[in-house]
Amino acid sequence: MDSGQGSSEIEPETLFGPANFPASNQEQYIFYDFEIPQMLVGRLIGRKGAFINKIKAATDATVIVHPHKNRKLKLCSVEGTKQQIELTAGVVVEVRVSAVVSGGELWVQQPLHPSYSALHRLQTCMNLNYGDGSNTPPLPGPISDGTVCVAHINDHWMRCQVLSSINAMSVVLLLDIGGTVTVPSSSLRQIRYDYMTLPFQASQCFLHGVQPVTGDMWSDTATSVMEELVSGVILFAVVVSYTEDYVPLINLYRRDKDQFVLLNEKLVELDHAQWISPQHSS
């Protein structure tokens, strides 16, 4: 079976491995710092420290909240191995939205996560390896749903997962930026083993406590407004609960000067969403 490299020898500049991704060492002790709004500190710590102690007990990582020069912020430090920190990353994190599916569904990346900095290197390696695609054969058929592979999209090779294939076209999920696209099945290529060592960088999430104004479908206007609200800024995501499929339901905050705006609430204020129930947490 072809490995997706196009020849029996792997060219050094296309190789992606531990040397290019130091954070892959699970025992490497690292520090992960992020700012947190003062209003959220109580939720992070919990009553008499219950929640933060639960995090420490479950992960064995150290979590410390420090003063910040801005009185409306605190600095949260998480210390431990990469594996320990991954278990706490979903509590309160700085994120950037990489794809807006609708007014209430987003895909986010964590720019401060230890693995994120290696994504650019991975992209470069894949672009060099696959080139224009002519040096590697298509993904063998029939293509099974769930297959992880690479696709050539917007002049870049991207890691993706096949959701469905019919009539020579495939719907794929973009694993590092989120969202789905439809591509010719012939444009898909096998993914090389070393290109699977980096964790997938995009996480799906839904806004907590809000729903479309009418029906079950978000309006195009709500989606456009959400795109404007999240474009080009670092945001704060707080996981509140999960769906039955374990997709995070989040409160999403945007920092505007010295104010922190809850985007869930902002969407309601702009009449592009409504609260699921009168009782909601901000």
- The CATH architecture of the largest domain comes to Beta Barrel
Number of domains: 2
Summarize the amount of helix as a percent range.
10-25%
Order of SSEs:
EHHEEHEEHEEEEEEEHEEEHE
Terminal-residue CA separation? 53 Å
Rg from C-alpha positions?
Answer: 21 Å
Report on the structure:
This protein is of the alpha+beta class and 282 residues long. It has two domains: 12-23 and 123-196, SH3 type barrels, CATH 2.30.30; 29-116 and 207-275, OB fold (Dihydrolipoamide Acetyltransferase, E2P), CATH 2.40.50.90. It has helices at residues 38-45, 50-59, 82-88, 119-130, 220-230, 263-269, and strands at residues 29-37, 62-67, 73-81, 92-100, 105-109, 148-153, 156-166, 169-174, 180-184, 188-190, 203-207, 210-211, 235-242, 248-256, 259-262, 274-275. The strands form four sheets. The chain has a five-stranded mixed beta barrel. A five-stranded antiparallel beta sheet has the order 9-8-7-6-10. The protein is globular. Mean pLDDT is 81; it is low at 1-8, 22-26 and 84-90. Residues 1-20 are annotated as: Disordered. Residues 142-198 form the Tudor domain. Keywords: Kinase, RNA-binding, Transferase. GO terms for molecular function: kinase activity; RNA binding. This is A-kinase anchor protein 1, mitochondrial.
